[in-house]
Every structure is written in C-alpha cells, then in structure tokens.
Amino acid sequence: xxxxxxxxxxxxxxxxxxxxxxxxxxxxxxxxxxxxxxxxxxxxxxxxxxxxxxxxxxxxxxxxxxxxxxxxxxxxxxxxxxxxxxxxxxxxxxxxxxxxxxxxxxxxxxxxxxxxxxxxxxxxxxxxxxxxxxxxxxxxxxxxxxxxxxxxxxxxxxxxxxxxxxxxxxxxxxxxxxxxxxxxxxxxxxxxxxxxxxxxxxxxxxxxxxxxxxxxxxxxxxxxxxxxxxxxxxxxxxxxxxxxxxxxxxxxxxxxxxxxxxxxxxxxxxxxxxxxxxxxxxxxxxxxxxxxxxxxxxxxxxxxxxxxxxxxxxxxxxxxxxxxxxxxxxxxxxxxxxxxxxxxxxxxxxxxxxxxxxxxxxxxxxxxxxxxxxxxxxxxxxxxxxxxxxxxxxxxxxxxxxxxxxxxxxxxxxxxxxxxxxxxxxxxxxxxxxxxxxxxxxxxxxxxxxxxxxxxxxxxxxxxxxxxxxxxxxxxxxxxxxxxxxxxxxxxxxxxxxxxxxxxxxxxxxxxxx
Length: 514
Description:
The protein is of the alpha/beta class. The protein has 2 domains: 6-250 and 438-456 and 463-467, ATPase, nucleotide binding domain (Nucleotidyltransferase, domain 5); 299-432 and 480-511, ATPase, nucleotide binding domain (Nucleotidyltransferase, domain 5, 2-Layer Sandwich), CATH 3.30.420. 40% of the residues lie in helices and 19% in strands. It contains 17 helices and 22 strands. It has helices at 50-68, 109-118, 120-127, 136-146, 149-153, 160-169, 176-180, 194-200, 222-228, 242-250, 303-313, 315-324, 329-338, 378-404, 420-430, 442-454, 478-511, and strands spanning 6-12, 16-23, 28-35, 47-48, 75-82, 88-90, 100-101, 156-158, 173-175, 185-186, 191-192, 209-211, 216-217, 236-241, 257-262, 266-272, 284-289, 292-299, 348-350, 368-370, 409-413, 434-435. The strands form 7 sheets. Strands 3-2-1-5-14-13 form a 6-stranded mixed beta sheet, sandwiched between helices. The chain has a 6-stranded mixed beta sheet with strand order 17-18-16-15-21-22. A two-stranded antiparallel sheet has the order 4-7. β15 and β16 (266-272) form a beta hairpin. α4 (136-146) runs parallel beside α8. The mean pLDDT is 95.
C-alpha cells in the first residue's frame, strides 16, 4: 500500500472549529476555521448549540481539503482535539436535549463553593481537577439540585467531542484527558471516581467508556463522507484535549519543558511521568496516557482581555483598520503599546474580567487597573493589559513549579504567539528564552501526531520533536526582567488585598442581573 503523505486534524475550540491539513513533517498545507456563536440566556450562563458546532466542524474539514487541492485518499487519518469541560445531556435516541454548556459557564458557583468546603479536597486529590464551576462535576450538581429537566431525562452526559463521535460513529467513547477534565475521573485508577459520581447523582452507565488517545473510530456514512470530502473508511483517531495536545504539538513533553498557550483563555502546562496533586489545590493534573499526565493551570483571561480592550478602548483603531482595508485593530493597538516602556509607567492590570481559575479558583474575582495617574494614556492601559495576562500566567507558573520543579525550556503557542510584543513580554517576565513554532496550531499538530502514532506511522510521541518547524526565539532583557520582578511583587499581593471587595462587588452585580 502506498504511503499517504498528509494528516488532518480537527480542533474543536471554544469559539470555532478548525481543520488543519499537515504534511507529515508538520508543515501546514491548508487550514480553515468556522466560528460559532455563544449564548447567554441568563447571567453567568454560557451555552452553545451542539448542532451548530457539528456543522462548523463538517464545513471546516471539507473546506480545508478543498483549499489544499489534494486527493482525499492521500490523507492517512484525522486526529481530534477539543476544548475541555463541555457538558451535553443526551437522550436514549442519542440526541442532544440540552445545549453544550462550556467551561466559562458560572451557574454552579454556589455548588462548587459548597463542594469545595465539605468534600472537595478528597475529590480533587483523586481526580486532579480543581473544584470550580468550569468543570462538569459542579454543573451536574447544579442540575441535580435545581431539577434541570434535561438532567432528569438524560441517558448520557457527554462532552462536545463525544457528541461528534456519537453522531458520526454511533459510539460513546471518551479519551482519558477529556474524562479527567470532567472532575469525575480518577487519575490514579483511570476509571470513573465513585465519590464524584455520587456527588453528581449519576451512574457510570451514564458516561462514555474511557479509552486511550490512540483509539480509532471508523466507518462514516456515505452521506457524511461526501459532506466531509473524506473517504468512508478513513480512520478518525480520538486524540485528546487541547491542553496536552498543545504541549505535544510544540514539543514540550520532557521534564522541564513548559508550554504557555494563550487563545481566548490560556494555560501553562508541563508533562509528568506520575500524577502530582497537593492540598493547596492550585493546579490541575489530568491523565493523558496510562504513563503520562499533564499538570498546570488555566486562566479564564487570555486573548479575551485584548478583545475587551479593543472593544472598549480601540474604537479609533477599529475605524482606521476598516477604512484602510489592511492590517487589524489589534496590530494598531499593539503598536501603541510597543511605544510604552515595560511596566507601563507603574500601571498594573489584574486581568480577572471573567472571574479566574488558577491559581485562585475564584469565580468572583474581578478585573482592576491599579496605579492610574493623570500621566497614563490609552497606550499605557493596553500595555498594562498585555502584561497583566502574562503576570497571571507567571503566578500559575509559580504554583506549577512547586510540584513539577523549575522549568528548563519555555515554549509558546496559540493565537497570542503571532504577537512579537506579547512574546517578548513573556520572555522578559519569566526571564527565560521563549521558543515559538512556525505554526501556531500546536493543538492541531498534536492531534495529528497522535493519529500518526495510532497508525504506527511514527515510532513514539516524543519523536514529534524532530518534526516541529520552529522559528526565531525570544531572548529576555535582563533589565526588563528585574523591573517586572519588582512589579510582580505588588501584583501578587493585590488579589488577596482586594478579594473581599471582589466578592462584595460580584454579589452586587449578581443582584443587578449582570
């Protein structure tokens, strides 16, 4: 049988589905992205339509293949990546009877706080998932306590990736990493955790079968294969969640290799040969394979902070970009921020616009500019915002270092890696050289590599390091690093000083229906 030259990845993200076609060397041949909307039917609720996501995924795959101009029979397989923590209720007919509730949904704040106070530590130490409204476990408890009708009628509870596998292959399977992120999976036994199931009021029969990331699903219907522009028998490899796949796709898989990924949200992660948790409950630890775990912490506030600054402060830049028809408002705002000295003349920004996950796990945290004076202008606020996101990542990195040891290599991926200013800020704050791949689609390449590994086309996961096209790295400026360390001392104390006021304001905002 002739060797097939290409591999396809489907990356199901928070706001879009992307299909990326790679050569087996890691070079991107073609890609296509389709966005889908997010609904907020009530304050703090964040939902999506699973059917819309499925249609976006189908269109992304077929369009990417069409763009490439290659023969569909020259694609070896499809590897799948997906965002974590989504939750969908399914009926006996394998139909979604609820929206897809995303990680950003905050309806279960009270349930998460109660669980954390009374049983959360024990469940966390078994599952590695911090008790927080992001994960399905508190959401299920909310459903149980409020009599949520889809919960009462559900035959199965699945993530968005599982939903697609059911729709396309009629099978209920879940990879270890997506299962881990549910808060219902024991990272020591690689089975569903009884105490978490009891808290959620569900049984293991209502969940999918946990399987390795190399599991293959095959046998598309002729109609679906035609819509996807793929052969009916092409293997779909179940892959993993976007976090570990981003580490794999960037080559951050050895001890000391730390990856920073920032898209809409963000995370800092490191692979581990054994599960590590502690009673501080600051970081996650998810199973990836039976001998590989990923540790780290997510932030709610990555690129979404820059988007908010563009929407609130960037009206002029938006108009200029539209009028010129070239460039983007983000580029114009970044150019403004680049003219400001590091540290934004003593202006700090706490980027907790969407509450916060690691290391505080506080849905009531709120954003704040600290140190504003009459001398500060819009460009200072933009710079402080970009720096604030990286200060947040640095604080998570401190918690990760406590369990995983000091980093030796720092890698960057995600949409933010297209900004040279933001990458230099990372290098200067962390005081380490930052390595950046040519493609920012690291999760997709990780998913594609798992596919190649499952088919025996590559010898190991670690071998991916030889097939990651890299571009220039960013060298830290030691003077800037020392300044940032001074500022970070203040930054690191601000959350705890303001925490009671955040909670008072959050309660007021909820009372006002915001």
